[in-house]
Each structure stands twice: as structure tokens, then as C-alpha cells.
Amino acid sequence: MPRPRRPRNIAKARKLRSEASLPERLLWRELRQQQDIKFRRQHSIEPYVLDFYCASLKLCIEIDGIAHDMGDKPQRDVERDAKLLESGIETLRFTASEVLADPGGVADSIVRFCEARKPLRAEA
After folding, report:
1. How far is 43 from 28, CA to CA, in rounded Å?
2. What's the pLDDT band for 3 if we cut at 50, 70, 90?
3. For every residue of 47-87, which 3-state class applies, written as one string?
4. Which of 61, 45, 57 is nearest to 12 (CA)?
5. By Cβ atoms counted within 10 A, which residue in 53, 68, 78, 92 is the most buried?
6. pLDDT tens column, 37-64
7. Mind listing the pLDDT tens digit for each residue in 65-123?
């Protein structure tokens, strides 16, 4: 019996993981060290592949290279963010140059954002 086909975006996500840009690799190195907040990279949520995703907080993190400033890309990004928000997924965007200049600082700002949104734990 043939194996069931995986959604196309899963194969695309795997390919993107192996071909990650330098800013994505630098930020991943920082984010994967987090103990309390778990991130996934190149996570498929049909019909999109998110650069980074925190499932527990429904948070997408996108690293935008210079191509995101060209043509209809800015409008497509706005529409994509709106579609994700309709599904309850909030998007944070950083430029590739911000990540290259200070990957630790970008990671810290992401962690602070996440910490502010984590549900308060009941204290015993």
C-alpha cells in the first residue's frame, strides 16, 4: 500500500530549514536556548510556512529580508498577517539587518514579548 502523501508545505518547510538564511540561523541559535518558551523553525501552517513559531502562545516570528520591501510584498505580508490573526496567531516581524546586528537583542525582545503574554501561574 503506498504511503499517504504529506502536505506540500511540510516538504517545503524541511527544505527551508536546510537552506536557512544567516539571520534565521543566528536567531534560531538564540531562541533554541530558551528553557521556558519553545519555538519551532520553518513551521508549516497551511498555506504558509512560518520562520519561527511558538505554539503555546500562538506567535509567529518572521525575519524579513530586503525582498519584503519590493513590489507587492509589503501588502502580501499585511494580508498574510491578517489571515494568521484570524486564526488566532499573532505575528512579530524583524528585519534581517536587525537580527544580523544583534541576534541576542532580538531574541531578548521576543522573549520579553512572550513573557508578557504567558498566562500567570497560580501560586500555592
Report:
1. 13
2. very low
3. CEEEEEEEHHHCEEEEEECHHHHCCCHHHHHHHHHHHHHHC
4. 45
5. 53
6. 999 999 988 888 899 999 999 999 999 9
7. 876 566 678 888 999 999 999 999 999 999 999 999 999 999 999 999 999 987 755 45
Spatial CB neighbours of 23, under 8 Å, sequence gap ≥ 6: 63, 65, 96, 99, 100, 103
Contacts (Cβ under 8 Å, ≥6 apart) of 89: 45, 53, 58, 59, 60
Which residue type, as a one-letter code, is found at position 13?
A: A
- DSSP single-letter state for residue 20: -
